[in-house]
Amino acid sequence: MPSLVVIGAGPRGTGFLERIAANAPGLLAGARLDLHLVDPFPPGGGRVWRHDQSPLLWMNSMAEDVTAFTDASVRTEGPVRPGPTLAQWAARVRDGTVPAPPDPATAGEVRALTGRGFAGRRVQSAYLRWTYEQAVAALPPGITVHEHRRRALRLSGARDARQRVWLEGLAAPLPADLVVLALGHLPSAPDAGQSALARFAARHRLAYLPPEFTADSDLSALRPGEPVIVRGLGLAFVDLMVLLTEGRGGTYTTGRDGEPVYRPSGREPVLYAGSRRGVPYRSKIGYPWEGERPPLPRFFGPAEAAALRERPGPLDFRRDLWPLAEKELGFAHYHRLFTAHPERTRMPWPVFEERYASCAPGGAELLALTAAAVPGPADRFDPAALDHPLAGRRFAGADALQRGLRAHIGADLARRHDPRHSPDLAVFLGLLSVYGQLAGLGDTGPWWHGFFSYLASGPPGPRLRQLLALSRAGVVRFLGADLTVTADAEHGVFRAHSASAPGVVTTARALVEARLPPPSVARSLDPLLRSLHPGAATTPAGLLAVSPEDGRILDRDGRPHPRRFALGPHTDARATGAFARPGTDAPSFRQNDATARAALSFLRTVAGRTPPVRAGAPPPGDTSRP
């Protein structure tokens, strides 16, 4: 019997399984199949979205903006099988048409969840588990699912032969006609700079936490009342902030102005936080879309992406891709401004649109056009100012810096919750559209992913209001932009300073790298992924190179492996996430479908020429689900 092994049963593996269920009736032609899911964590949520994490940690998207199912917007060859968003699933739990999660606390959170609320991660774990169960139930007869709660250690086998997947704790490997890697976010070994800081910390008995998933971090070394330098102000910082404040017994009350006031427990450290930008990610937008949507894609669509794929040689992001992306984002911004807020413009939209189309991105002609047509500077699209809001700003001292950063965060919160600034939401839609085109163009480098996350994947507004309360309480102190951290061997401490407040230096005996490690095949701590490095093609950034058509892993000569596929952030076909915002033609759904169809077509051929062969009963500790 043909055998398919999927390594990674988190959201990406679950999404791939859903596409197998959708496409198998048409492509497998009734053939039998053993489908093995390999993951030490429970299927559905996997490691990152497992139930076993703090109930204080939230998602950063509203419940109505989260789905694990395809919809009419998704351009797939396979059938679309819609399913409930997270908010709709919660409503079904409330009305009793879907069973509640077994944990009473999580079930209570689900029942209280509204469409515009931010779910706890344990709620998302329950939704993903339910999604997984629906996918298994939808598989046609003849496909048997085997769950292996183990780590995959190694993959072997010739290109034209069955593969062997070696699992932790088992002597015999799993035979596989096809293997799909859906590994998700993985821990990585420290780079040279991080290793040097770790050695310095060990010599001087300091605390150093390298980049990692914050829910996995041991925070016990961060002592109450002591300063901690934090490098990073993205989502990992928000998790760290929560776990070291509310997680240590602090509470919030409501002040006279309606804003939160933090009441310390006395067990918190003092967080001195900075980054390259020096500011937190932009707040999640707090109002729904109304009216006409920008007609996207306009300047960067499938035709432009196809032309880029035909170019000889490697693509350069700044030279080849960013001009198209910038023009697309600007078009989304101005389309919304002119159609929804025409009183803030001085030119009819058709005239502006025609002139905009002829302008080079960022050039003098475009600057002149926008200055003439859009009188308010705050209404103009300026990606450089968005990306570096503190560029050129200098504060007289540490206290002035705190006031300046609180003002910046407050202004961002006000803008992102005010529909008068709805071009910001149009840019968000533009970002999703651009990401969908870039997903098939290989490794775009780290800047784009950081820029996208900063604008489109920021924290909920309530989290930033809590950050302001922590700043006012003195529990968080901002360090500013272009943060530099050094190891002071003479005094045995870490030292931090930034370009925002020259002369202000912070010292501490603890340093936290508040960010996920960048995906890297060579430095991955996952033994299976690291074992692929000698034979597989990788990008300069260390990502696994895969075929943009179906996700087959490429070898060093650029040949697609006939029996090995990979999906997820460790590949150069990175998508925005394993689940998505409804109605956005999510690239991860398209990739899952293409890979599932290629896998099933191959397995149908195998089934036609291979007599039934079983590997034996599932190993001890594994389970089967017919």
Helix/strand-derived category reads: alpha/beta
Q: Give me the Rg, rounded.
A: 25 Å
Q: What is the terminal separation in angstroms?
A: 15 Å
Please report which band the strand proportion falls in: under 5%, 5-15%, 15-25%, 25-35%, 35-45% or over 45%: 15-25%
Overall mean pLDDT: 94
How many distinct beta strands? 22
Taking strands numbered 1, 2, ... along the chain, how are they ordered across the largest sheet? 20-21-9-1-2-5-22
> Which parts are unreliable, with pLDDT below 50 for 5 consecutive residues or more?
610-621
Number of helices: 17
Morphology call: globular
Biggest β-sheet strands, sense, barrel = 7 strands, mixed
- Helix residue percentage: 25-40%
In short:
InterPro entries: HpyO/CreE_NAD-binding, L-asp_N-monooxygenase_NS-form. The chain has 626 residues and is of the alpha/beta class.
List the helices and strands and how they pair.
Blueprint lengths: L2 E5 L3 H17 L5 E6 L19 E5 L23 H10 L8 H9 L5 E3 H18 L4 E6 L3 E5 L6 E5 L6 E3 L1 E4 L10 H12 L3 E3 L17 E5 L3 H10 L6 E4 L5 E4 L6 E5 L27 H9 L6 H24 L8 H10 L5 H10 L9 H5 L10 H19 L6 H16 L7 H11 L4 H12 L3 E5 L3 E5 L4 E5 L8 E3 L1 E4 L13 H5 L20 E3 L5 E7 L20 H23 L13 E3 L1
Parallel strand pairs: 1-2, 1-9, 2-5, 9-21, 10-19, 11-14, 11-19, 14-15
Antiparallel strand pairs: 3-4, 5-22, 6-7, 7-8, 12-13, 16-17, 17-18, 20-21
Helix pairs in contact: 1-4, 1-17, 2-3, 8-13, 12-15
What keyword list fits this structure?
626 residues; alpha/beta; seven-stranded mixed beta sheet; five-stranded parallel beta sheet; 17 helices; 35% helix; L-asp_N-monooxygenase_NS-form; HpyO/CreE_NAD-binding; FAD/NAD(P)-binding protein
